[in-house]
Amino acid sequence: MDNSKPPFQAMNQTNNTNAKSPQALQGVRVLDLTRILAGPWCTQTLADLGADVIKIERPAKDASEGQGGDDTRRWGPPFLKDKDGHDSVESAYFMCANRNKRSVTCDISQPAGQALIRKLVMQCDIVVENFKVGDLARYGLDFASLSQLKPSLVYCSITGFGQTGPYKDRAGYDYAVQAMGGLMSVTGERDDVPGGGPQKVGVAVADLFTGLNSVIGILAALRHAERTGQGQQVDIALLDTQVSMLANLGAQYLSNGEVPKRLGNAHANIVPYQVFEVAPSTDSLSGTLQKEYIILAVGNDNQFVKFCQVAGQPDIAANPQYTKNQDRVTNRAVLVPLLATILKTRSKEDWLSSLQAVHVPCGPINNFDDVFKDPQVLARNMVTTYPHPIAGEVQLVANPLKLSATPVSTNRAPPLCGQHTEELLQELLNCSDTDVEQWRRDGVV
Asked: Is 207 a catalytic site residue?
């Protein structure tokens, strides 16, 4: 097994957060009752900003259940390799959304587990949960119950469809929400071309945007609680988030009643703004020709003039049918095939260098290998290396926030399931070793 590190390792940001540097959420503690992606993405962002996030996970019931914990721990392969190059029980999926947290196992279905959670809540400022509507009320861990204990508590509930409405009791999944929320109706090639039809986005964007919206709502509620001492429930739904993400297309529909259609890689309101095939390249190993593409994103009329100059076709820009963007949109059926023919006459490198030189937006279509070798990605330290008890070290995509005075945390790799149970119960609740051992025998932790 090849355990060599990728060539960008030397330029990675490592776990070197200056201990003397304050962090934006330093002193804020979060009880994390979430799993899968939207909730953990939210709490990971809070943790990156300096909050002390306590991730509550299910203890394994028996040997057949394995490690217990967040379901995504088993969502693989791929799994993290140990120091000998063998698969561990830590999935790459879990690793993407759980750094900078401490993990405690606790069975909230048991009264003793519920009592532990209530005690931990008294030491926290924020609770984040993504259980089905009403589930936590059975255990006295819902907002109404916990806010009685701690009136200043910020309590964020993340669900598929929110705390109200006819769908509130349904389970929510990113794929279904991309479909229900209209995103798949405008993603994919047109029905009348080969391969046409609805497509989901390649990553779980409804989950990820919901996680980030949750952070925004939590920080607003936390600010209110700090001013007034009054907590509140933050009700975040995947479907609400997805509908809000329709952005300009949603506004377009509400303004004229016309249902937007799929346009593949083209843009509904801007032309030319899509993928174009360029001259093929020769594979260095096989000697065969392979197709090459670029994206062209001409955002205004001046950029279109510059593009036509680079293309050696100034007459196209001067044509009244194409002078203004609204004309280009109206006449796209004629213009786009014309441009497609021109773009096939020159190589990808030629087009990119020539267009970038005159500030016409364009770019290559990178695969992941290209992305993580890109000099801009390297310069922005978008990979972080953490020490890890199983792998020795693990590389993760970094948080993109760059804060000059309060840098994001790079302290902890995603935790092993229950890694910090004794540490946290002793630190926050003054529990003894005997208490913890008894809870372990009873399956509480």
From this structure: yes
